[in-house]
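Structure first, sequence second, as always.
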């Protein structure tokens, strides 16, 4: 599964990697260690009975 990382400044898709990613939109170089890529599972929605 390929994951897509996004620029922390402009939120566009980053390319290259895996050590340094580059944003084609704002020309920023982002180190892989600075990218938030921790998996956070979605919370289950619970129906509330009224």
């Amino acid at each position: 599964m390929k994951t897509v990382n996004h620029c922390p400044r402009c939120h566009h898709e980053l390319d290259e990697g895996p050590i340094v990613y580059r944003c084609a939109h704002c020309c920023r170089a982002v180190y892989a260690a600075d990218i938030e890529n921790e998996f956070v599972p979605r919370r289950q929605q619970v129906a509330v009975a009224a």
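Margin note: The chain has a mean pLDDT of 79.
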